[in-house]
Amino acid sequence: MKMKKKADKSKMYPMWDNCLYAFRHLKQKEGTAALAVCGGDVGFSVLLPFLETALAGAVAAILVSGRQPGEILLLVSGYVALLQTVRFLQGYLKNKQSKTLFMLRIDMMMDYFRKTVWMDGQSLESARGQKKWQDARRNLCWGNSLGIEAYAKAWCDMLLQVTGLILCGAIVGQVSLLLLVILILQTLLVSWLHAKAGKQAYSKEDEIEKKWDTFQYLRRETVAPGNGKDIRMYRMDKWFLWLFRQLIDGTCALIDRQQTGYMAAGMAENLLTFARSVAVYGWLIREMAAGNMTLPSFLFYVGIVAGFSGWMNGIFQAWQQILENEKAMDAYRDFMDFGVVEEGKQAPERPGCAHEIRFEHVCFRYDGSNGPDGEDTIRDLNLTIRPGERLALVGLNGAGKTTLIKLLCGLYRPTSGAVYLDGKNIQSLDQRAVFREFAVVFQDVFAFSFPLSDNVSCVDSGREDPVRLWESLEKAGLWERVCALPKQAQTAMNKELDEDGVILSGGEMQKLMLARALYKGAPVVILDEPTAALDPIAESEMYEKYDELIQGGTAVFISHRLSSTRFCDRILFLEKGRITEEGTHEELMRRGGAYAELFALQAKYYREKSAWNIKGEQYA
Prior knowledge:
The protein has 620 residues and is of the alpha/beta class. Helix content is 63%, strand content 10%. It contains 20 helices and twelve strands. The chain has helices at residues 15-30, 32-63, 69-118, 121-125, 127-141, 148-175, 177-203, 205-223, 228-233, 237-289, 295-336, 401-408, 431-435, 452-457, 466-475, 479-483, 506-520, 536-549, 585-591, 594-619, and strands spanning 4-5, 11-12, 357-364, 378-385, 390-394, 416-421, 424-425, 438-441, 524-528, 554-559, 570-575, 578-583. Strands 8-9-10-5-11-12 form a six-stranded mixed β-sheet, sandwiched between helices. Strands 4-3-6-7 form a four-stranded antiparallel β-sheet, covered by helices on one side. α3 (69-118) runs antiparallel to α6 and α6 runs antiparallel to α7.
């Protein structure tokens, strides 16, 4: 399937392919009965207007048939009963269709969330991934008037209107081919006018969306608590209000240009409809006056011709709905096709055992850094981590430590070079299986607003191993605190979902993350500066405690404080994505390089800070 690409490299799918995609998923998600419901709604929705149109003619024919009053009443009652039955069935199927299409949107929303949590982190975290994710939400989360639900309904309406128009044309054609030609010509001309107006309106959507995004940005910045002091201190209120006015006026001007096209098409349609009505009704009146048409037939054909415009207008409205939702469908499918797909890959050969991890000429560059000034975050890095080794990655902020860790455990893919797990390229292995071999505690420690046990075990409530949970909490030094909580391990964290939830202190959060890593029991444990908010002494003690608890496995400790990792078997000093020094703490200090200089500088800073605190306390 060929797909065009816009400047931002987002995909645009053919309209017919989007239509097949929507109804193929309708069948997959809701079953064949869902297609039958949509088809039944179309059938009864077409039948009902024709029965209503024929009612006046049928009653007139019965009245002039010479039947007895009782027979006339019975026949008219039967026709009305048939009409009401069809109306009831049509209403029932219409409601059924609405529920079915709503459930389609909900099921596809689950696919969207599943894709979000299963796709590779590198793609999702990138600027492109975030934009695609946001754009795809419009297809699902903006109600039933925009996205897959409205799109599928619009195609059902299009089938309904086209079927009704064809039946109208067939009925008129039996009376006069000339009348049919007049109706078809008017339909084609009006269709062309509306299509032109729709194309013009659709071309303005990107400009309107851009202005709307800017408007939303300004709205968020205006109410952001941190911005209020600057807005008021520097009198930015007039500037912000001027920007709001410019955006509102510009958006209204674009919408006016959209509506002008539709208005012109509507006026032309009214003129053409008037001319058609004069010609058609004049012909019908002449045929009736000449005795070639009965009164019931005249009434029937008048209703059919009048209904022709209704079907035609329905086509225009359905077409406009389809066009308005095409972009949302494109954005959703673009996101669902984005990122790395993990299929048919093998698991690591020695799951649960200590692994050798090897980097060979690894370079990594973040998405969006491909310009002439772009730089690699990791540069031609070679490294072997031995099974059971205690390794430290140290360096200043921005040296590439966290990026290196994400490459190590398979969250990121190298731009060039390769990472090997026991001699196997990590990209050739099943990503979810690789993740089971690593327990990582990142810098930004936080707890989800679920029970504490869920935060530690990371499984559904009630499925955790209670003995393993208790051991992990006890080793992490959090068991006594948990026992004191209102619901112990079932106590909710934070207060977003439960007003009785508990907010842990910074030190307790560190212990909770340690308990999570211990519960997982992975052979490789990585600590990516989770203690950065603590003072140097507390951080050093925490790292040494982690080292005691991680027995038999491989541990990687990351810090920009060099004193915290003195106990490690090997220390790597990173600068601008490269390993510039390597060795034990004593070896690096004897070498007198950048590591030794930074260690001395940090030690001096902490001594001066400690002395200043002591003086401050004495002065107080």
